[in-house]
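User: Can you help me understand a structure? I only have the sequence.
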Amino acid sequence: MKAVQITSYGAADVLRVNEVERPAPGAGEVLVSVEASSVNGHDVIVRAGEIKMVSGRRFPIGTGLDFAGTVAATGADVAGHRVGDRVWGMVHPRQRHITAGAAEYVVVPAGRIAHAPADLSPVDAASLVVGGATALIALRDSVRLAAGERILVRGAAGGVGTAAVQLAHAMGGHVTALARDRHAPMLTDLGADEVLDYGATASDRIGPFDVIVDTVGTELNCYRSRLGRGGRMVTVGLSASALTAIAASSVYGARRIRTFSANPDSAVLRDLAEHVTSGALRPVVHGVYPMEDIAAAHQAFERGGVVGKHVVTVSA
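Assistant: Let's start by predicting it. Here is the structure, written out as tokens:
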């Protein structure tokens, strides 16, 4: 089969589409014929060598955190999935993979996939897995957004941000989106009550907010100070400076900066599908690239300045 692999750490040109042996599912595992995968921040930082403690120094390394496709085979002791089922899922973000979601086939534990929403194309489904699951966990489990609360979504135009705006709106929050001014019409359409231009908005001039969801990972203490009484903040934009700010914020108790590593299981993916089916969440895709052009997809992701996800199509 064909699979995208990282051949050394570096810029996007280290990505190669290689011929590799097709994997076979073991007990409790499912083989998925992949139709689409998206580009996520995790893919980029692995490729750049920023988390070598996890990915190691042996090459090649697979890329593609998420995927959408159909079940091609199941191992022993797998219930609830049959050959031909349309599914979406995610490889484990804290494990090293020789091949991952950006490949013609991927093997994952059955507990890491769920039936994809019937009305979504593979491209649309792949665009929602990581961003949608991350936003859902952040809002529902980390900060526990309640109806009527004022919420700021920082980095609202990205994959997590566009999902967070929609889900926060569906949960009854009053949503302020912080993004480029030109993205205001789209974000308003997604459910934002207010859109602020991040280039012209000082953090000390906004708020207070009950909840802040940050996808950027910089100036965290400045934004944390915009929390009102009983406010909660979570960031999914991790860096060395972000981790320092998160640790230092522990002195603020409930108003500390929370974080987590999104690692959705089947239950979260099923919940995500329900939000899609109900109309609360819809895909936002900026660009679609064939697997052979994945380097261009990574480069576009790193340039930023767009609304939504970059998706890579795969055809076995």
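Now, to help you interpret it: The CA atoms of residues 153 and 213 lie 5 Å apart. The first helix runs from residue 41 to 48. Let me know which part you'd like to focus on.
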